[in-house]
Specification:
Strand content: 15-25%
Shape: globular
Strand order of the largest sheet: 1-10-5-2-4-3
Helix content: 25-40%
Order of helices and strands: HHHHEHEHEEEEEEEE
Structural class: alpha+beta
Largest sheet: 6 strands, mixed
Oligomer: single chain
Distance between the termini: 40 Å
Amino acid sequence: GLKVKLGSTDEVALAEAFTNAEVSKINKMLEKNIWQGKVASDKMDGILTIAQADGVEVEASGTVYEKVNEVRLQALGAGVEDLVIAVGADQFYSLVDELVMKNLFHYTTTVDGVMEFTFPGTNVKVWGVYGLNGSGAILAFNPSNIFYGFDEEVGVSNVKWAIDEVNDTAHLKTRFNAGIQIAFPQEVFYNA
């Protein structure tokens, strides 16, 4: 398929295209694990998993706007500073639509692909993240309390690359360690 898409049989171009596609898949999987991972299946707990174990659950119902607002108010009321709200990209667009219908938005001429805006009337940023898609979760936290760690072991032994000329397939295998930790999980407020 890559040979047809690229219109070339150049091995270097094919290797680069294949590797880029595989790295993109790894990045998507890693983003989901960072947000929703569970150590039993993903070898690491994500931010939502840690929040559900040690954070503060906010009972909220209604529209996405109403839920985000309730989570925001409870986090601010508890004294969480430099607050950010994270929602799945699937909820982010619903929230934006609701803000537009309520006329609670600020027009910007810049569209740069970053899913972020300031919640109307506040200094609270709202992030849309693909890693929370499908979870229905809304998280409020101070980003400086979230830590991502990974192993610094580098080397060819952690990356395996093979081309099967007979079946016209390529394989890439990588191995690395990564993990998330929250410094003050009791300062993470969520609705899921």
